[in-house]
Amino acid sequence: MVDLTTQYMGLRLKNPIIAGASSLTADLDSIKNIERAGAAAIVTKSLFEEEIQIERFKFDEDLEKYNDRHAEMTTIFPHLEHAGSKEHLYWVKKTKDAVSIPVIASLNAVNGETWIEYAQQLEGTGVDGLELNFFAVPKQFDLEGAAIEKEQLNILKQIKKHISIPVSVKLSALYSNPLNFINQLDKIGVDGFVLFNRFFEPDIDVNKQKNRFPFNLSDRTDNRFPLRFAGLLYDHLEGDICSSTGIYEAEDVIKMLLAGAQCVQVVSTLYKNNIYQITKMLDQMTEWMKQKEYSSIDDFRGKLSKENATDPWAYTRAQYVRLLLNPDEIVNNFPVV
């Protein structure tokens, strides 16, 4: 009997596939379908502080746009406040009540005070864990990387002081030394690391000469970067490793587990292949484990990590040195037609 259970953020998951934050986890019907498809947990669509700020600004602007023309009439309207985070919190609570699998809330805040405020509010919905999205858009020439890391470390310390549910951090891949920063986060007590976040990437329409805002899905080759870090971090952290980006097939999940991850997050494959791709991946994982005679994930997790790999340079080589020294491998990888 094959056992797919795993641990993540101190939560026991029935299998290693988590549906990551997206518009699919912002709709109750699709969330229920994700649960039926076999996902072990879901991460709700993020609460974005910037989005709330924009909505509040637009609300105030619409409410007051005729004040100068009809000043004598404005006093008859009651004072109204934008709902802010309340609508999102209500929806997260409904999600938690609607499914039996663990629900992890996702948070994107800007200011130190609101990180803590929203973290506490999300905990109050009854969610099983909280995922913090740490990143910094490159827009200031004089801001040093160390200052960004220090601010994020302080935010994490404060949130850990104010809430009791498990906390994970979803990281950008753009830190100068991700291993060092992850190690610092781990010492503070992060329960899980999601490696890595995928951001909006701008584009330009050369015919219209305008900026484009495409919906960027990952590609399967994108999973090689989180694979590297799963292999490097295995057995070096107290927190758990969750690989994200470019996870499309059962083979991709198995690779991450072999490298050392406890679980994965999937999003793009659900858009491209539909939600029931999760069922297919789980079936294929089960079959693979039977063929390899593994009864549980712990039987092979980390088997090909840096700690256990037969090639000690597998995760630290930066260039194609091995291929250059072994030209036969180039021929095998790129056969001449």
Could you characterize the architecture of this molecule?
There is one protein chain. The chain is of the alpha/beta class. It has twelve helices and 13 strands. α8 links the parallel β12 (240-244) and β13 (263-266). The protein starts with 5 loop residues before the first strand and ends with a helix.
Q: In a few lines, what is going on in this structure?
A:
With 337 residues, the chain is α/β, with parallel strands linked by helices. 40% of the residues lie in helices and 15% in strands.
Low-confidence stretches: 52-82
Q: Helices and strands: which structural class? A: alpha/beta
Helix % is 25-40%
Oligomer: single chain
Instruction: Specify Rg, calculated over alpha carbons.
Output: 23 Å
Q: In DSSP terms, counting alpha (H) and pi (I) runs of 4 or more, how many helices?
A: 12
Q: How many strands in all?
A: 13
Please report the distance between the alpha carbons of the first and last residues.
45 Å
Apparent shape:
globular
SSE succession: EEEHEEHHEHEHEHEEEHEHEHHHH
